Amino acid sequence: MSLISLLPFIVIIGAMFLMTRNAKKKQAQAAQMRDQMTPGTGIRTIGGMYATVKEVGDDTVTLEVAPGVHAIYAKNAIGAVLEDAEYNRIVHGIGEDLSDSPVVPDDASSLTEAPAEDEAPKLDLGKKDEPKKDEPKDGKADGEADAK
């Protein structure tokens, strides 16, 4: 066997090694992030729910998902540990500068304007077919229900 025939196997093994190495790095970073959790820290679960950490156990975390509502989650379900400023911005809207954002009305009635009195009436652009010479004017052909 020559080196050229072994080259595809070497490339495949090298790619597998690099992929497992990257996955292990990501797992280590996730474990380190979860170890940073302390009571009072804001987090986001892998399902996208924002909550505050109340208690940290070995494999579980008690989260306050609403005032007075506690839920127990697996540590692996924590997607991100957020900084206080980011958590307050997302959950409570604290620290957002809304001066440049457009004002959105509460109802849609303010989005439509009443037509001015001096405006011409709108034209009906719908297609209205005229009956052909051999068709009856009522639009019914022979063989149809209610035909005469």
Key terms:
single chain, 5 strands
Poorly predicted regions are none
Q: What is the helix content?
A: 25-40%
Q: H/E series, N to C?
A: HEEEEEH
Largest sheet features: 5 strands, antiparallel
Distance between the termini: 92 Å
Number of strands: 5
Q: What is the strand arrangement across the widest sheet? A: 4-3-2-1-5
Q: What structural category do the secondary elements indicate?
A: alpha+beta
Beta content comes to 15-25%
Continuous helix count:
2
Based on Cα principal axes, name the global outline.
flat
Polypeptide structure, described:
This protein is α+β, with helices and mostly antiparallel strands and 148 residues long. The mean pLDDT is 80. It contains two helices and five strands. A hairpin with a 3-residue loop joins strand 2 (50-56) and strand 3. The chain has a five-stranded antiparallel β-sheet with strand order 4-3-2-1-5.
What are the SSEs and their pairings?
Layout: H1 3-35, E1 42-45, E2 50-56, E3 60-66, E4 69-74, E5 78-82, H2 84-92
Antiparallel strand pairs: 1-2, 1-5, 2-3, 3-4
Please give a quick description of this structure.
By secondary structure, this protein is α+β, with helices and mostly antiparallel strands. Helix content is 28%, strand content 20%.
